[in-house]
From TrEMBL:
It comes from the Bacteria. InterPro entries: Amphi-Trp_dom (IPR027598). This is Amphi-Trp domain-containing protein. Residues 6-72 form the Amphi-Trp domain.
Length: 72
């Protein structure tokens, strides 16, 4: 059972997507935590010192996707 689940899907320019990824990376590097907000609620999640990183690239004839997943 999930205690909390936040999902967000948005269409961004490549540059704005890169900015968001930089913000996430900076938060991990500096604060060992991530902050998320949705519907007026905010939660900060501490990230363990060791994480499992999974990167998946799918190239199809009409679409390409890159998934980055962190687990701890």
């Amino acid at each position: 059972m999930d205690i909390l689940e936040i999902k967000d899907k948005q269409r961004l320019s490549r540059e704005d997507a890169a900015k968001l990824l930089h913000q996430i990376a900076d938060s991990l590097a500096r604060h060992n935590a991530l902050q998320f907000s949705q519907d007026g609620k905010s939660v900060q999640v501490r990230v363990a010192d060791q994480v499992e990183l999974e990167v998946e690239l799918e190239v199809e004839s009409d679409e390409t996707s890159l998934e980055i997943e962190l687990k701890w």
